[in-house]
Amino acid sequence: MELIRFIAITIPEYLNENIDKEELQNDTYASFKGVKPYKEELNDFKNSIKTFHDFDDDKILKCIDFFGWEGFEDEDEAFAELKKRIDFYKQLSNPAIMYRVVGVKDKKLIKVDNIGEHVTPHKWAIDGDMLLMIGSENWEDDIIPYIIELSVPLSEIDIIQTIIQNLSFPNEHEINLKNKGNGTKFIKTYKLKGF
C-alpha cells in the first residue's frame, strides 16, 4: 500500500515540476500539421533512391539518421566512410564483377542458380577474417571455401540494404543483392587460396 501511495503522490509532483506548461499549451494538432510520421518519411526516403548516383551529402546524412552508425566510432567517421563507399559504388561498371564465398565438401555442390544475397566487389576482402564472419569455425573439417565469381547488373543491387549493412558491419565490404542473386550471371568458381 505504501508503494501505491508513493507513486500516486510522486508522479504527479514530478510531472508538474518537469513539464513546461507553456510548451504543452503550444503543443496542439496544428503544430504537427504537415509533419510526416517517421515511417512515411522513411519510405519516401527509400523510394527516392534508385541508384547510387541519387546520393549526395544530405542523403548520406539521412542514411545515418535513419539507419544508425553502430559499426563506427562516431557519426563523422560513419559519414566519411559511407561517402567513400558510395563514391566507389558510383564508379562500378554495369554489370560489375562481384565475389561470394561458400563452404562446401565438393565443388559440384555449389548451386550456381541460387547464389545468395551477400557479395563483395573486393576479391581481397575474402580472407580468413571473412570466413570467421560467416561462421567457418563451425564447419566440418572436409568443408572447403570456394569463391564464386559473378557478373552483377547494378539493377540487382539492393541499395538500401547495402547501405544498412555497410553502416552496421563496415569490415565486411558487402553488397546485398535482390532476389537471392537470381538476376546475376555465374562466371566461375575456384578454391580460396591458402585453404
The radius of gyration over CA amounts to: 24 Å
Q: Within the largest sheet, what's the order of strands?
A: 1-3-5
Q: How many runs of DSSP E, i.e. beta strands?
A: 5
Helix content percent band: 40-55%
Report on the biggest sheet. Answer: 3 strands, antiparallel
Encode the helix/strand succession as letters: HHHHHHEEHEHEE
The total count of helices amounts to 8
Uncertain stretches of 5 or more adjacent residues: none
3D structure, described in words:
This protein folds into 3 domains: 2-31, no CATH class; 39-90, no CATH class; 96-191. It has helices spanning 2-18, 21-26, 29-32, 38-47, 57-67, 75-90, 128-133, 159-168; strands at 96-104, 118-119, 144-152, 175-176, 185-191. The strands form 2 sheets. A 3-stranded antiparallel sheet has the order 1-3-5, with no helix packed on it. 41% of the residues lie in helices and 15% in strands. It has 195 residues and is an alpha+beta fold. Helix 5 (57-67) crosses helix 6. The protein contains 8 helices and 5 strands, in the order H-H-H-H-H-H-E-E-H-E-H-E-E.
